[in-house]
Design brief:
Blueprint lengths: L4 E5 L3 H13 L3 E5 L2 H10 L4 E5 L7 H11 L4 E6 L7 H7 L3 E4 L4 H63 L4 H18 L15 H11 L4 H8 L3 H14 L9 H6 L4
Parallel strand pairs: 1-2, 1-3, 3-4, 4-5
Length: 266
C-alpha cells in the first residue's frame, strides 16, 4: 500500500505537533500521541501505513513499543527516532524490526526522504509481486500448452503416420527402401522424444489396436475375453501380444507382460 496514513509517537508534545504539521502539509493524514499505551489502542482499531516513534519514552521504550506494534500488524513499517545514539545502534533497531532509524536532531527533509524511500520500495515490492503472479500464470499456461502439444504430436504420429509405415514395411520393397523406412521411423521417434513422458522412444510405434489389447491385459483379461471384446480372433490377440513384447523390449525376456504394462503408462 502507498503511504498515506502516518502515526507519530513521542513523549514530547512539541515534537509531535511539529511532525504532525509537517506531515500534513506534505500530503499525509497524520495523528500523534505522547503516550505509547494510547497509541497501541488506536493501532488496534485503525489502519496506518507508517509509524514514526521515539525510542526513549517513559513507561515503555520504543523498542518494546516496536515489538507490540509488530504483534498488532507484522507488515506495518516503523521509523524509530532517538537522541540517544550512544545507547541504541542502527543495527539494534533494524534487528528489532524497524524499517529505518533517524537520529535527533534531524532535518525534516531527511525524514521526508526516508518516507519517500520506503514508499518507493513498497511500490517496487508490489510491482515484483504482480510480476511474479503474471509470470506464474504464463508458466501455467505454457505448461498446459506444452502438454497439449505433446499429446497432439505423439497421437498424430502414432495414428496418422506409423500405420502407413507399417504397411510400407510389410510390402515388398528392395532392401535399400526398407532401410529408408527404418531411418524414417527412427527420425520420427527422435522428433517425438521431447514429447514422450513415461514411455521410452521404442514405445512410440505401438498401434491403437495394440494399446487396446495392452489395456485389457493390464485389466487381467484373458486372450478369449480380449478377442470377444474387440471382435477379433484369439490368434489375432496372440499376435498383438507378441508384437507388444517385441516393441516393449521383452521378446527375449521372461518378464510377465501384464506386470510390465502395469509398471508403465500408456
Amino acid at each position: 500500500m502507498e503511504i498515506k496514513r502516518v502515526l507519530v509517537i513521542d513523549d514530547e508534545p512539541d515534537i509531535c505537533t511539529m511532525l504532525t504539521k509537517f506531515l500534513r502539509s506534505s500530503g499525509y493524514y497524520c495523528e500523534n500521541f505522547t503516550g505509547s499505551a494510547k497509541a497501541l489502542e488506536v493501532l488496534k482499531r485503525n489502519d496506518f501505513d507508517l509509524v514514526i516513534s521515539d525510542i526513549k519514552m517513559p513507561g515503555i521504550d520504543g523498542l518494546q513499543l516496536l515489538s507490540e506494534i509488530l504483534k498488532i500488524n507484522p507488515e506495518l513499517d516503523t521509523i524509530m527516532m532517538t537522541g540517544h545514539t550512544n545507547i541504541y545502534t542502527y543495527s539494534d533497531i533494524i534487528k528489532a524490526g524497524a524499517v529505518d532509524f533517524i537520529a535527533k536532531p534531524f532535518q525534516l527533509s531527511e525524514l521526508k526522504a526516508k518516507i519517500e524511500r520506503i514508499d518507493r520500495e513498497r511500490k517496487m515490492q508490489r510491482q515484483l509481486k504482480e510480476l511474479n503472479i503474471a509470470m506464474g500464470v504464463l508458466l501455467q499456461r505454457a505448461e498446459k500448452d506444452k502438454d497439449a502439444l505433446s499429446e497432439n504430436v505423439v497421437y498424430n504420429v502414432n495414428k496418422m503416420i506409423l500405420p502407413y509405415m507399417d504397411k510400407l514395411q510389410n510390402a515388398y520393397f528392395r532392401e535399400e527402401y526398407k532401410a529408408y523406412i527404418e531411418i524414417l521411423r527412427a527420425n520420427l521417434s527422435e522428433i517425438c522424444s521431447p514429447f514422450m513422458k513415461n514411455l521410452s522412444l521404442q514405445y512410440a510405434n505401438i498401434s491403437s489396436m495394440e494399446v487396446q489389447v495392452a489395456n485389457l491385459i493390464k485389466a487381467g483379461r484373458r486372450n478369449k475375453e480380449i478377442a470377444s471384446i474387440l471382435g477379433v480372433s484369439s490368434n489375432t490377440v496372440m499376435t498383438h501380444r507378441y508384437r507388444l513384447r517385441s516393441k516393449l523390449g521383452l521378446k527375449q525376456s521372461k518378464v510377465n507382460l501384464r506386470s510390465f504394462l502395469n509398471s508403465i503408462e500408456f
